[in-house]
Protein: Major facilitator superfamily (MFS) profile domain-containing protein
Amino acid sequence: MPPFGLFVTTFFLVSIGQAYNDSHANTFAASIKGAHRWLAIIHASYMAGCLIGPFVATGVATAGTNSQWYLFYTFPTSIGCVNLALILWAFRDSMRVEPHSGATDDTSEARDTAAGETSKNKDAIRLIADILSGRNVWLLGMFYFFYIGSQITMSGWMVEYLVDVRDGNLAQMGFVPAGFNGGCLLGRLLLAEPTYRLGERRMVLIYCVLAVGLQLVFWLVPNIIAASVAVSFIGFFTGPFFATGMNMGSKLFSAESHSTALAFIFVFAQMGGSLFPIITGVIASSAGVQVLQPILTALLVAMTIGWLLVPRPKSQPNPELHQE
Structure:
């Protein structure tokens, strides 16, 4: 078996690549014509992977001593190779190396290059300062902070809650997260167009209220079937939030600051996704896993308030965005 340190190192490198890809993929998708559709597709693809995950994990976990779990990594490795090949093909025109035009003095060229790099660094620092001094990135980031926090907390703790508090069967409850992820997948595919056409701010607010109501059903109705259905519909109505927020960001931020602003928003989102499951675990270790319900309700209410605080974007998309 490979040493544990190798796992830590490779997961660290994979996370860097995913973070970089998340920021720029969303920026690119939000900058083309019909952005709400393309954002819905790429985020639905993500949820399709999350939907498959519990089934794969259950198969690996129940294989016993005969499990060759390490062969699982051949699957994401193969997908990564195919993905890399498709990206190289899709962006082949923008990755061509421009040839040098004529001979130049090496010293002068090196001096110009150093000056150019210094100027770029100063511009980057100034851009970051400008973004962080505005309220848009903080308010949209706060919405994502509570949104991703609620999603990860729910998907991570619902099985233990249903088993310990509702006396559910572990073998059956292990598939409830698949219903949640399946709801997210369908929501991102089916609700993207009506959300865009009927008004993103209005529709997301309606979805938030519905999610809070369904969360109360999950909490107050002592029935496992009702809880499973409520969780699936919470996933359905909250599914479009990520793509819709990215589309809103394309109107709140200029083309120059779009990528950097989204990167900071992703940081807030991942902070929520990392922080709240840990807080839930710490509290549950002393008070019991039943604390999941008030924590989830508070997160969804905070998410709703966060959305109300997001500034209203301009009526027209950013004119600097690509219309390919």
Remarks:
- The chain has one domain: 7-62+130-309.
- The two ends are 49 Å apart (CA to CA).
